[in-house]
Amino acid sequence: VIPYGRQTISDDDIHCVQEVLRSDWLTQGPAIELFEKAVANYCQAQHAVAISNATSALHIACQALDLGQNDYVWTSPNTFVASANCALYCGANIDFVDIDPCTYNMCPEALEKKLEWAKKNNKLPKIVIPVHFSGQPCNMQAIKALSKKYHFFIIEDASHAIGATYLNTKIGDCSYSDIAIFSFHPVKIITTGEGGMILTNHSDIYQKLLLLRSHGITRNPKYMMGESDGEWYYQQIDLGYNYRMTDIQAALGNSQLKKLDTFIERRRLLANRYNSALSKLPLLLPWQHPDGQSAWHLYVIQLLEPTRRKEIFNTLHQAGINVNVHYIPVHTQPFYQQLGFKIGDFPQAEQYYQRIISLPLYFSLQDDEQEYIIETLKKALQ
Ligand SMILES: Cc1ncc(COP(=O)(O)O)c(C=O)c1O
Of 57, 182, 298, 363, which is least packed with CB atoms within 10 Å of its CB? Predict the structure, then answer.
């Protein structure tokens, strides 16, 4: 069976993990800081915080920006539910901005329109979370310009996009945002099993993230109320969590990071091959905005005949090709419908959802496997 995505783990990764397993530190040890520094350096961001996963990253990113009751967060409906759930964890309200039918990312024009409406109705968002869907960067210049006019924070959900570039800067450098987050789940570009990273250029946000990741506890006398009692002393000064990454995971991440550019190069080559092999079929292929270079987490095709999606999906599965669908619009999930969202609220994301299939795309996908996928799809579409 060919999955839609999978990790690539080689002997050097295993060696790095074994080294940690034989060391004194399985967690809260030196591998964490090494990994954080390496990711910050790769992205050219000032601070990086390794974390248990991108879901917890989104949660404490919102909390670090003081998100609370009566506040609004806006994100894209074309994302995994975690991009929206983070607002609700903080007791805030969630809303969505429809996608651009070309990029499948949050549409800046729709965002601007909604901001104008929200200003009149006193419902402006405190945080906007653009999602770099499938690894393709959002129009961050436009979103940043709107954030200045309407005074909201930006958290980039870059779960799909480590290694992507936007206007010659690396996604994660936070030049257009307050915070960016990555996911290292096994289907993502690089993996730590479960895991994530939060990046920011703001020292105050960085300090808050460190606190929230680990119970709200500090050992730094600078942040304590009153005097420290001694070397053993710590204080809880906020309500935090245990969202730490282990050193075992960080060692794997560090080893994987060294191969990130090679991984993306191969993904790009495979995507280009899909582009040329599928160009004459009744499909819409992923359009790439010239301002960015995708990390190619996903390769999504749209069927011109949406009524055939289930049949084609099933035919591919029966042929051992485990294609997938990204994403069911978040606002159509039963939980979100209970909050008051309705089918029809974000028509671009809904229309897109009806037509899509994600084809297998990962570093170790073999040329003959890709050929088989292409041929099987061609036959299925006939
Ligand atoms: C866009 C997006 N955001 C957030 C997440 C959550 O990531 P994690 O599984 O690391 O918690 C995912 C995971 O699939 C995702 O695709």
Answer: 363
